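Fold this sequence, please.
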Amino acid sequence: MTEQPPRRRSTNQELVRAVWEEARDLIKRLEGSTVQRFSVEAGDTKIEIERGMAAGAVVSAPMSTATVGAVPVADEAAGAPELDGRHPIKAPLVGTFYRSPTPGAPAFVQEGDVVDEGQTVAIVEAMKLMNQVQADQGGKISEIVAEDGQWVELEQTLMLLELQE
């Protein structure tokens, strides 16, 4: 009988995902506070987040993975879409925005599609993990703001919904 190798890679991915989710939740709870920088560590995984004028996010994965450098936070006023009464669907975390589940596959949604609350409308890849972006309300996709394959920031507007009455 042969012995199975340990599930180290899977366990590391689960750890990174858990640490990232905790950091994301903490960011949401700290909105409006004066905290400018904090760090979360678990084993050899470290996530650092800095807010402010020259804010950026530095994400360090396990030592065998390259570190992602500082990335400027999107300026909310510059380039922000006009809402005109529309509801924004925002990025749940920092990462790369994709409109389809795999390269070459049809997009989750197109402009003009009607979506239900909880429906997956895109994904954001962070640290090789695909995270679903779901509509938090039902409505019609009136505009897709983010470009496929674009780097997005936490809470950046990805799409705009015309709410259904």
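The chain has two domains: 8-60, 87-163. Residues 8-30 form the longest helix (23 residues).
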